[in-house]
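Letters spell out the chain; backbone shape is given numerically. Take this protein:
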Amino acid sequence: MAISWDDMNDLQPRVMRLIFNSIDKDRLAHAYLFEGKKGTGKLDAAMLLAKSFFCLESGVKPCESCQNCKRIASGNHPDLHLVQPDGQSIKKAQVQALQEEFTKAGVESHRKMYIILHADKMTVNAANSLLKFLEEPNRETMAVLITEQSHKMLDTIISRCQMLSFQPLQPQSLEQQLLQEGVSQHLARLLSNLTNNLAEALELSRNDQFAESRAKVIKLYEVLHQRKEHAFFYIQDQWMPFFKEKDLQETGLDMLLFIYRDVLSIQIGNEDKVIYQDLFQTMKQHALHSTQQMVTSQILAVLEAKKRLQSNVNAQGLMEQLVLMLQEG
């Protein structure tokens, strides 16, 4: 489902306000650099800008119904060119082919636009070729360079672009997006706190392994606080066989951390911030029978375990030590 201008305005209000004002005042730059973390909507914003640039209707926002808007949405507008890495890098030949294309007249109008994904992955020769291109701006031509690592790009290229920084998505915004995509409430809230990448969150929401991970984490929490004597057996028989890889172990600890943070949220009256709403009554009992200091110690114990996991310690030994600390807390 294509993202709308209003949706993007909710996700990146500052960026979209700047773009809106530039179009409204007919002051679009000839080159933009969209920089920010993965999943912050940089390509979606570039496509919306392209639609506005080529839209046949008057107005700032694209109409989404004219021939140009529809062709951009379907990925086949002849005057919009997308360049992305060929293998590990964007090569000089790709930039030269782009330059050659831009010597020709536009098919639909005099306007042309190109979008370069992962612009930081240009080879030195490709970057130098692009630099020459940027030094000869044409009012009818627009460039949008997209990167997650602007520090890896040539300063001379950055200086010739108007840089727009995309902020990480707020959990509330991402949660609403996920709900609109049909993700259940309990998963949407958890995923929006695990990642700020909509595509990654949607992929995880459809992943049976992720759903099972959540169930294993909840089970560990319940064992820790309701059947303490079974905790070590659970780690050995259930946790370790499932959480074999390091990235899974990290995710498991993140999800466990959120539970203890939820308990603290309940203690301090921030019940609307609780992520595991389906565990609310269980966590409320925990909150009533623990002090804030105890729960804070449990949070710190999980954070320390996350830190130690990066040092390639024995994962089972780490989890067994964490169990002891959580039970003492």
The chain has two domains: 5-168, 207-328. The first helix runs from residue 5 to 11. The two ends are 46 Å apart (CA to CA). The first strand starts at residue 31 and ends at 36.
